[in-house]
Design brief:
Layout lengths: L45 E3 L16 H4 E8 L8 E2 L1 H8 L8 E5 L16 E2 L1 H9 L4 E4 L13 H8 L4 E3 L11 E8 L7 E9 L5
Parallel strand pairs: 2-4, 3-5, 4-6, 6-7
Antiparallel strand pairs: 1-7, 1-9, 2-8, 8-9
Length: 212
């Protein structure tokens, strides 16, 4: 299948109307990394490119469409308590029925229901070894229906760094994974095409075959 982007790329400083972005690699904001006022591009459901952490990483405009459109798999970790680690062994067991190579991989935590609540940042999180294993399986993109994939309150982001070192983007704050009938489905992940942008709000569309 061939993918063709029919939209113009936007570039700050070259547009007819004002387009202004301010980007920083996360490492520049350590220790105690905090979001900056005005960071509209990490609101709600969004995708983070490797450029979010790495100056040599792909920015939003450089992400491959082939990595953001296609077959997806969700692994259900709702049985694990919030603020508890998802081990490599646990993830391997859940993934046994599937071939993850080239797939868009989602962790279903069930925490999307608490997005606007004080407990919204309480979440299950994959261990560093679990994320390293996912990278070894050659997933094309990772997503989660929670606010992140790190230990809450950690002053650095090792799991992000592992993904981004291999130019694997990360989608956060997905919703309604429980409404999918199957753990295997297809998705379109559509970020705004802006040169130099580290993260972007997205429209993410899942579809699956109707049961006969």
């Amino acid at each position: 299948m061939k993918f063709l982007d029919l939209s113009h790329q936007m570039e700050p400083g070259k547009e007819e109307y004002l387009l202004d972005i301010k980007t920083h690699q996360v490492e520049e904001l350590y220790p105690q990394y905090n979001r900056r006022p005005g960071d509209w591009y990490i609101l709600q459901t969004h995708i983070e490119s490797p450029y979010h952490h790495r100056k040599d990483g792909h920015d939003i405009s450089q992400l491959n469409l082939e990595d953001l459109v296609g077959d997806a798999i969700k692994l259900d970790v709702r049985h694990i308590e919030p603020n508890t680690e998802i081990s490599k062994q646990e993830l391997m067991e859940l993934a046994k029925p599937y071939d993850l190579k080239g797939k868009i991989l989602f962790l279903q935590t069930g925490r999307d229901k608490y997005y606007y609540e004080k407990s919204g940042h309480d979440r299950q999180y994959p261990s560093a070894q679990a994320v390293e294993w996912l990278v070894e399986q050659e997933i094309s993109c990772m997503g989660v229906d929670a606010t992140g994939i790190e230990v809450k309150g950690l002053d650095h982001q090792p799991n992000h760094s592992t993904l981004f070192a291999k130019n694997i983007p990360l989608v956060e704050n997905v919703k309604d994974l429980d409404k999918l009938k199957s753990n295997e489905f297809q998705v379109f992940i559509l970020p705004i095409n802006i040169k130099g942008l580290e993260s972007s709000p997205i429209r993410i569309i899942a579809f699956e075959n109707d049961e006969e």
